Amino acid sequence: MVPIVKKSRIFRSLFYLAAVMGCSILAAGIYWYAGKIFQRGISCKNCNVILVSLDTLSADNLSCYGYEHNTAPNLCAFADKQVNFPHAYANSTYTLPTHVTMFTGLYPSTHTIQEVGTKKLPESAPFLPSILKDNGYRTIFLMDQYNPHMPMDTVYFRGIDTQFDESTVPWSRALNEFENVIRRGEKAFLFIHSYYVHPPYNEEDKPASYADDDFDWIFLRDSDKTGNTQNFIDFLITALQHNLANNVPKDPARHRALLDELTAGVGNIITQQKALSRYDAIVKEYRENYDPLIRLDPADPRQMSYFKSVYDERIRKLDSGPLRELLSFVQKPSVAANTIVIITSDHGEEFGEHGFISHSTLYNPNTHVVFTMGIPGVNSRRIMEYVQTADITPTIIDLLGIHTSFVFDGISVARTLSGGRLLRRMLVAESARNITLRLGRWKLFLDKSGIDSVPVELYDTEKDPKEQINLLFSHFRFAQNMLSAYKRQIHEITPLSF
Questions:
Q1: CATH number of the CATH domain containing 474
Q2: Number of domains in the chain
Q3: CA-to-CA distance for 316 and 310, rounded, in angstroms?
Q4: Which pLDDT score, from 0 to 100, does residue 488 have?
Q5: Any domain includes 36
Q6: Does pLDDT of 105 surpass 50?
Q7: Does residue 5 sit within a domain?
């Protein structure tokens, strides 16, 4: 089993949190609570495992998490019949650090893989595929092999027996490989990653039921992406202006010259098309890195409604296609009898709720993620504990009965499957500028741009799930106590050395 911290350390942590809450009742109940913490968890020794990561899928956009539209009936039917964690949160807001956290059980500040191409995950670091391979598992990955946010050379270079490229290989191929492994009597681990919900989107993604055509210029059509249409030229002008204003191009003079020619030719598409032919390399770069979000105004609620409708439609298509196929596959008797199925997401998406789009902030639309599990012999459960992405690897190896000496920032949640409780702890999420600390319903934002981390926002997410009412000044002492407890916690966390 995964090693768990000593009781004395748990008691100390609980008393820290009792001090934070200012609650003598909490302190008085520690010994009862600790008994629940040490309750034996469910195990599924030598079971096969399928782990699915649906990139950019916010739990806020699923009916089984409270959304008003039934965007994913198949996924939600699975979640309702199996084990579901409504309070699951990501430890970061984009693909690279969150997936490294998923496979190491470490916070981004511990594994330090937070920027593309900067570091290589040390072989001394815990890494789920390697742990499983060392314990007799055949490991299969379906992922984007050429995406820098899923880097094969610096992260996914060990412990993986078979790799498929998600951009060219259907899920069925990976599922067949998984089934072939278990037919041979071997233990199998399959990881499936999907970018299907992730931008960019096309105009063709707009749902048929969406009748408003005022914004059909925002997303390019397939024909715009390959041809020098007026819509593509208009998009390119916006993209050039955006990138030049943000100092993105390495050769700004050439980008500026193309922008000037396109702007001068407004009203004459032939002149603009001739300009494109003189800057083939730049035009190709913008076609390959098409980002429609720069044309969206997060302050315009109608545009945000349109954006969300396209996002929801992508969820529906994923649910009715590959996900339905997967959920049918895992019901096969030969698979269901001995396979753990975990479906999660690495982060969500924001639609102007706080003045931003995409997934750059640590507000709930970006960090509230899917976490649902199907485990042989475990009945339907809706578990209200607060859990995080860093808990996935410790939970898997605990369920499988694997012994390891690795120390994780996350913990196994297996004991909750049999009615046990988790240590009341702070969940941590990190971005380039901010850290959030989540203690139950309380969520504290820290600004880490200076020398010290400074509290800037505090929300009661139970009463204010949209995080609109900042309670920092009315609860400042409570926020200070949370920050103090966090500082004590991070003294026990050592970043990996390189």
A1: 3.30.1120.10
A2: 3
A3: 10
A4: 84
A5: no
A6: yes
A7: no
Cα separations in angstroms, 477 against 270, 455, 458, 481, 484? 65, 11, 11, 6, 10
- Whether residues 178 and 309 share a domain: the answer is yes
CA distance 399 to 240: 51
Mean pLDDT confidence for 24-44: 52
If asked whether residues 157 and 63 sit together in one domain, one would say: yes
Burial-class residue 63 by CB neighbours within 10 Å (0-12, 13-18, 19+). middle
Do 409 and 390 contact (CB within 8 A), yes or no?
Answer: yes
The answer on 173 and 113 residing in a single domain is yes
| 454 plus 336 within the same structural domain | no
Claim to verify: residue 179 and residue 52 sit in the same structural domain? yes
- pLDDT at residue 41 above 80? no
The residue from 383, 417, 451 where one domain ends is 417
Domain limits at 442? 434-490
Q: Are residues 324 and 254 in the same domain?
A: no
Cβ neighbours of residue 289 closer than 8 Å, sequence gap 6 or more: none
pLDDT in tens, 142-176: 999 888 999 999 999 999 999 999 999 999 999 99
264 and 333 assigned to the same domain: no
* pLDDT, tens digit (0-9, with 9 covering 90-100), for 296-312: 888 999 889 888 999 99
Q: Which residue would you say has higher pLDDT here, 119 or 266?
A: 266
Query: Quick one: pLDDT band at residue 381, thresholds 50, 70, 90?
Result: very high
The string of pLDDT tens digits covering residues 232-268 is: 999 999 999 999 998 888 889 999 999 999 999 999 9
